[in-house]
Every structure is written in C-alpha cells, then in structure tokens.
Amino acid sequence: MSAAVLDAVAEAADRTAPGPLFVAEGLCKSFGGVRAVNDISLRIRDSMVLAIIGPNGAGKSTLLNLMSGVLQPDAGRMSFVGVDLSGLPPYRRARLGLGRTLQKARLFRHLSVLDNVIAGFHLHHDVPVWQYLTHGAAFRRDQARCRAEAEKLLAFVGLQHRAGVPATSIAYGEQRMLELARALAAAPRLLMLDEPAAGLTAAEVDRLFDRLTALRAHGLTLVVVEHNMDLVMRIADRVLVMNYGEHLFEGTPPEIQADPAVIAAYLGS
User: Fold this and answer.
1) In terms of Cα–Cα distance, which of 167, 173, 170, 231 is closest to 200?
2) Is 79 helix (H, G, I), strand (E, B) or coil?
3) How far apart are CA 112 and CA 115, in angstroms?
4) Is residue 97 predicted with pLDDT exceeding 80?
5) Residue 144 confidence (pLDDT)
6) Closest CA relative to residue 167, chosen from 208, 120, 107, 122
7) For strand 75-80 and strand 22-31, is the pairing parallel, antiparallel, or unpaired?
8) Where does residue 30 rank: exposed (0-12), middle (13-18), buried (19+ CB within 10 A)?
C-alpha cells in the first residue's frame, strides 16, 4: 500500500462538513410508466461503507446516477457536505468531491495505463490558462506532480508494472483496478462504485476488498452497489436493500441476513 495515497485520502476526508456527508430525501425517478426509484432516502456519514443490494432491475444503478448527477430526480432532494445538489451536473458534483466508477469500465483505450490515471487529475490542475499554450514552468511542474501521484496510485492498486502499456492490452480485472485508480486521482470525499467485483476472480475480489478496506480506514466514504454478497458482508457498515425501485430494508450485514423479507426477495433460503 502507498502511504502517500492513503494520506491524500485522509486529507480529502478531513475537509468534510459537520453532520451527514450525503443526504437524500424522497428520491423518485420514472422512465415512461416504470418507477425505477420510488421514495428513497439516505443519510451517509463520514468514513462509512454503505452497500446497496437488490435483484437486477431494482433501481440500484439509477440511484447512483441520481446521486452523481447523470440523471435528475423527478422528485426529492439531495445535499452533499451541506451543499444543495439540485440541478448540479456531474462535473460540478465531482468538484465538490463526489466520485464514481461505472458498471462497465470506460477507459481511454488509446492512452497508456499511466496516462489514464493522469487524466483523472483534470479537476485539480493548478496552471494559468496561458501556460497550456506555452508549456511554461508551472505547466511542467504540474505535469510532473500529476505523473508522480499517478504512479503512486498505480502502485496502490498493483498496476505499477503495467504503467506504460496501452489500456486496451490489460486484463479485465486490471481494467477495474485502473478505473479505481483514476477515480481516486480526483480526490473524492465520497466514492460510488457500481458493481466493482463483477467479473473478477476470487483472488481479485480479495485484492479489491484489501484496497477498499484501506481506503475506508483512512476516512474515504464508500457507496458500493454489488451482487457479490461475500464482499458486501465483509466490507459494509450498513446495507440498503432495494426491490422494484423501493426501499425494502436497511440495516447492518447481520440484520440483513436475518430479515425474512430480504431473504424472500433477494438472498434466498
């Protein structure tokens, strides 16, 4: 693990405001006649891991799209570090510290692994606009800083040996870890992960668990949509269960495993 990466995570977490980090109240979203999200409310505190589970089509990814600003709700409100998110597009939310990975990795496939991570620093460049034209001293210092920090992130996710190869040439599991590194480059305060363990081997899931545990221990707040129940039960502080777009149950992992309605709708006997 890179101590520098974890120190940066802790520094970002220290910027949070008092009270819940993220609040959602009465979120609703319909597509035609289908209510994908119906009256969902959340209160997410600092440094917690909230897992969101449910059958396919339960509305989990739609909820993440509402939180990240990809979609706007039909009803309800959200705030992050005390800032009202109404109408804010994804890039404005990212600047506040809301990070996101996607269900399917979307990498810059023509760039190297290292350059994919460097691209994640676009929110935190400290260069006068005119230096992008002249490539002066401030531009070169910023480029060197981003490269050095990107190398640390690759070491954190175990991809330092793949830094120079094209993103198209690495294995699927490595692509998922690369997407995590790129998301961390934006220095999020809250990171949403959409099925990060999908398609991973058991060994890769263990590696993912190790990285997420380290991030949580250093103050990063995580929201994880996931079908891998072993990972959910190991990593989550709280679990929200959705079914047909609605709130079915919320509780700790042991409470989720014991609830009859959750067992009937999702976990099975």
Assistant:
1) 173
2) strand
3) 5
4) yes
5) 78
6) 107
7) antiparallel
8) middle
Rg of the chain (C-alpha set):
19
CA distances from 114 to 59, 179, 202 (A): 34, 11, 26
Q: CA dist 35 to 28, 244, 262, Å?
A: 7, 8, 20
pLDDT at residue 127 is higher than 70: no
DSSP, collapsed to helix, strand or coil, labels residue 144 as helix
Show me where the domains of the chain are located. 20-97+187-269, 103-182
Taking CA 23 as the corner, what is the angle to CA 18 and CA 27, rounded to the nearest 5 degrees?
170
Question: For residue 130, which of 139, 118, 122 has the smallest C-alpha distance?
Answer: 139
For 106, list phi and psi in degrees, rounded to 5.
Answer: -120, 90
According to CATH, the topology of domain 20-97+187-269 is Rossmann fold (3.40.50)
Per-residue tokens: 38: 């119906």
- Determine the pLDDT at residue 11: 61
pLDDT reported for residue 107: 85
